[in-house]
Design goal:
By secondary structure, the protein is an all-alpha fold. The protein contains 7 helices and 2 strands.
């Protein structure tokens, strides 16, 4: 059976994070400065390079905490590539809606794996806690992709925070790793970094459950003809 897909060009993008307006102005300015050879595909690849830099930075922190500086630079590179690829396509009116949607969000999932696997391989956060955070992020992503299919709405932020706010949070966390080191914490086997990453993961999972119930009720009312 073939299931018709929602045309990604017709999706309503819902972005209500704190930095959305200022970030959009910055991205539009950057788009106007980019030379022709800077294409959406190259920017997507740059974003993946940034994710690899983050992974290597956290992995290298087992040798010395100065490797974490590579992770911080990687977050900036990953933000630039990930935020600019779709922006420049829309700015130049060269969108490939289905291809762009598929490739962009496939790369997002892989980049998130690199980032959280790197954090889990660092001496600061245990892998099982990092995987809880990864599960939370991917569950919320699944909700966003399912909502795009059944509602035609692509939600890019939750609790007034989006990917950019999460990157800034992770940069702040990484700076704290540099400042505090990876010595024993006050919580037994789990460090304060474990508790922070685990709490974020729990919040993401809780948001997935809440948003799933809310969307399910909305769809049920719609199909009963109440909306």
């Amino acid at each position: 059976m073939t299931i018709p897909l929602q045309n990604s060009a017709a999706l309503s993008r819902i972005q209500e994070n704190w930095l959305a307006t200022k970030e959009r102005k910055l991205l539009n300015w950057l788009c106007a400065q980019m030379p022709p050879y800077v294409t959406p595909d190259r920017l997507t690849a740059l974003g993946m390079i940034g994710a690899c830099m983050i992974f290597l930075g956290y992995l290298g922190s087992n040798l010395h905490s100065s490797w974490l500086l590579l992770a911080i630079v990687g977050y900036v590179v990953q933000w630039f590539g990930d935020s600019m690829d779709g922006s420049i396509a829309r700015f130049r009116r060269i969108e490939r809606p289905s291809y762009g949607y598929f490739i962009d969000h496939s790369c997002d999932g892989l980049a998130t794996l690199f980032i959280l696997a790197g954090i889990g391989l660092s001496p600061f956060v245990t892998m099982d806690v990092a995987m809880v955070a990864l599960a939370g992020y991917l569950l919320l992503s699944i909700h966003a992709y399912l909502s795009a299919r059944v509602l035609g709405e692509f939600k890019l932020s939750y609790l007034a925070a989006g990917p950019t706010e999460l990157r800034l949070m992770l940069i702040a966390l990484t700076l704290m790793m540099i400042a505090l080191g990876s010595g024993p914490g006050y919580f037994g086997r789990l460090s304060g970094f474990d508790l922070f990453v685990g709490t974020v993961g729990f919040i993401l999972i809780l948001l997935f459950v809440i948003q799933t119930l809310a969307t399910g009720r909305r769809l049920a009312r719609s199909e009963r003809g109440e909306e």
